[in-house]
Amino acid sequence: MRWRRCGEDAALLDCESLEQMRAAHAIVSAARPEGVVDLVPGARSLLVIGGVAAAKTLLDDADLRHPPAGEPREVTLDVRYDGEDLTLVAEDAGLSTDAVVELHTEAVYTVAFTGFAPGFGYLTGLPERLRQPRLASPRTRVPAGSVGLAGEFTGVYPRESPGGWRLLGRTSATLFDPHADPPALFAPGDRVRFRAVR
C-alpha cells in the first residue's frame, strides 16, 4: 500500500487489490477516526478526506486481508432478464440463457464502490463463468435500470447514458433520487441480490 497526498486535507491510499481497499474502507468507516470527513472508495484505492494521520495510524496495524465482519444492509432488485446481450453472454459462456439467469440470480453481490454516474454501484461477486469483457463498441444510449456485466463486475445503470457493459435485463428500481435521503440506493458494503421476474 502507498499513501499519496491530495491537497491539504486528503490522501489517496493505493491498494494492492479490491479486497484490500474494501477492508481499509470498512475499518475506517467503522472507527471513524477524529477528523475524517469523507471516504471515497475506488477499485484499488481509497480517498481519505480529513483526519489522514489518524486514518494512517488506524490502518498501519490493521489486517487488510479481509473486511471486518458486520451486518451489511441487503437490497433485492427484481429484474426482467430480456437484455440485448443475454444471448451473447450465454454463447460466450457456453451456457443457455436460462443458466445465465440462474447463475446471476443465485449469487450474492457486494457494492465495492460507486462511480461512473450518481447511483451506479460496482458489484463484486459475479460468478467466474459470467465474467466477460465490455462490448467492443459501446452503445450511445443504455436505458435507465439496465442490468449489465463487464469484467469482474455487475451493475445497474441508474439513468440513461452511454455504456459498454453487456446487458442482461432491466429493473424498475430507482437507483438514484436527488430528493431522497440518502439519494443513492447503493452504498459501499451493501449486499445485493437479483430476482428474476416475468
UniProtKB/TrEMBL annotation:
Output the Gene3D superfamilies linked to this UniProt entry: 3.30.1360.40, Cyclophilin-like
Keyword Nucleotide-binding: yes or no?
yes
For this protein, the record's Pfam families field holds: CT_C_D (PF02682)
Any keyword Nucleotide-binding? yes
Start and end of every Carboxyltransferase domain? 1-186
Q: Which InterPro entries match?
A: CT_C_D, Cyclophilin-like_dom_sf, PxpB
* EC number of the protein: 3.5.2.9
Q: Which GO terms describe its molecular function?
A: 5-oxoprolinase (ATP-hydrolyzing) activity; ATP binding
Q: Which UniProt keywords apply?
A: ATP-binding, Hydrolase, Nucleotide-binding
Q: Where is the signal peptide?
A: none
What PANTHER family does the record point to?
5-OXOPROLINASE SUBUNIT B (PTHR34698:SF2)
Name of the protein this chain belongs to:
5-oxoprolinase subunit PxpB
Write down the species: Amycolatopsis mongoliensis
Q: What is the lineage of its organism?
A: Bacteria, Bacillati, Actinomycetota, Actinomycetes, Pseudonocardiales
Per UniProt, what is the name of the gene that codes for the protein in this document?
A: pxpB
